[in-house]
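TASK: fixed-backbone design
INPUT:
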């Protein structure tokens, strides 16, 4: 894959081309962590290594319940269109398989969007695959474990074996027994709490800088019985900056496997949606559009689950000049975002695409993977730009900004507002938020001008 501008690289990585040509560049590859990002990395490596070993401390059996290593697993998760296309690329037929096992294919025309509880004219231009996080992870896990050269070791990774300028193995422990797994290539998929940077620093290598953006987002999610004859729909609700102080900042309704509605409520800072069923139902009925009240009318199937995330964070591996050979990092171990934007799983699929492009080009996987991190950075930058821009705007409400910052924010608001009423802008905005197009594609003079014109023709106030 040729390198180019960020838009060109993003387009190449997000294209869901069939896997046609592969080559073996490593004997044994080890993936530290069996998360979605780790499973996808293992799938890619299965085409480029003789053996792939996943080391994961959680039970990776047939469970469809949230794993301890995924504390947000009970919450609502979005599989964006960009992610679904990549999953189909790596696992042909996985959409049909998931639907056969209970996932719901939600038509885009049935996704209802509300701003300040007012329905918006625009609808999602894509059909969405809807299911719980444990369900989707289970489907991906089984497809990965079906690969003949992939195996799993239950254990906790405790460090790296480094020597000769490259990674040579992974240290792990299970049941009090310590062991070392030799490796030609290692993937860090240990999530937000990854200790890879510390291990590198302890061994005399550079540690990637860590950048945090406070978000202080709080979630509560409930699962409710869905009547077999109930119309299928999805709902997304959010508050505009003018209503930012409202008790409930937003929420989502999704039909999921098992004949259920998954209902999520969100709030920021001191607003923490209730863990109690009565408090949860009250918010759905009083704070949000009627779609939420309809979704919680059935029998509750599980206790209300809550989750809090203090910050978004990213580690700058692309900025390292000294890096051991044969080592990469993927998923939340590199960047984790405000989960309200649903970018996590889709970003992981695009990290896998970056890994595939890198391994196809490299003659020796034991060399430092600078090119991989350059490719991955394009994906991380795109997701980071979308999510943190909104987070920073909320935090900086009322702050004195430079003229350039005020102009950039105003243009962004024009595009977002126009996407709720203008079909063309809605499609372009959906391409970006679904990670099938780079954010820069929204900033063309034609798109900005159309957005301004569309907003001028709208009613003066909602």
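OUTPUT:
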């Amino acid at each position: 894959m040729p390198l180019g501008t960020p838009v060109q690289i993003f387009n190449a990585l997000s294209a869901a081309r069939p896997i046609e040509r592969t080559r073996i560049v490593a004997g044994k590859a080890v993936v530290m962590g069996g998360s979605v990002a780790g499973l996808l990395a293992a799938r890619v490596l299965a085409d480029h290594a003789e053996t792939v070993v996943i080391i994961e401390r959680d039970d990776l059996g047939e469970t469809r319940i949230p794993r301890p290593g995924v504390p947000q697993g009970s919450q609502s998760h979005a599989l964006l269109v960009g992610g679904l296309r990549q999953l189909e690329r790596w696992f042909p037929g996985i959409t049909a398989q998931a639907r056969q096992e209970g996932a719901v294919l939600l038509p885009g025309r049935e996704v209802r969007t509300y701003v300040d509880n007012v329905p918006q004219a625009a609808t999602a231009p894509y059909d969405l695959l809807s299911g719980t996080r444990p369900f989707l992870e289970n489907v991906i896990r089984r497809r990965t474990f079906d690969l003949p050269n992939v195996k799993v070791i239950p254990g906790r990774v405790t460090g790296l074996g480094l020597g000769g300028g490259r990674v040579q193995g992974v240290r792990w422990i299970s049941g009090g027994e310590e062991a070392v797994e030799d490796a030609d290539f290692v993937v860090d998929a240990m999530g937000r709490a990854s200790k890879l940077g510390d291990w590198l620093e302890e061994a005399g290598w550079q540690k990637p800088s860590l950048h945090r953006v406070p978000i202080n987002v709080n979630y509560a999610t409930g699962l409710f019985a869905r009547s077999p004859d109930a119309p299928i729909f999805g709902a997304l609700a959010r508050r505009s900056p003018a209503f930012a102080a409202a008790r409930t900042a937003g929420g989502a309704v999704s039909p999921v496997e098992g004949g259920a509605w998954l209902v999520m409520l969100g709030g920021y800072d001191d607003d923490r949606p209730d863990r109690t069923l009565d408090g949860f139902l009250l918010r759905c009925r009083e704070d949000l559009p009627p779609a939420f009240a309809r979704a919680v009318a059935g029998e509750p199937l599980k206790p209300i689950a809550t989750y809090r995330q203090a910050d978004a964070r990213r580690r700058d591996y692309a900025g390292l000049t000294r890096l051991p050979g044969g080592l990469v990092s993927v998923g939340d171990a590199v960047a984790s975002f405000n989960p309200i934007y649903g970018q996590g799983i889709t970003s992981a699929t695009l990290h896998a695409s970056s890994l595939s492009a890198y391994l196809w080009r490299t003659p020796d996987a034991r060399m430092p993977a600078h090119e991989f991190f350059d490719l991955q950075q394009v994906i991380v930058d795109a997701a980071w730009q979308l999510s943190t821009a909104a987070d920073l705007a909320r935090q900086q409400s009322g702050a004195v900004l430079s003229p350039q910052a005020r102009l950039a924010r105003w243009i962004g608001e024009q595009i977002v507002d126009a996407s709720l009423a203008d079909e063309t802008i809605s499609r372009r905005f959906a391409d970006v938020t679904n990670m099938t197009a780079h954010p820069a594609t929204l900033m063309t003079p034609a798109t900005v001008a159309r957005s301004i014109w569309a907003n001028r023709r709208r009613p003066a106030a909602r």
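COMMENT: The chain has a mean pLDDT of 88.
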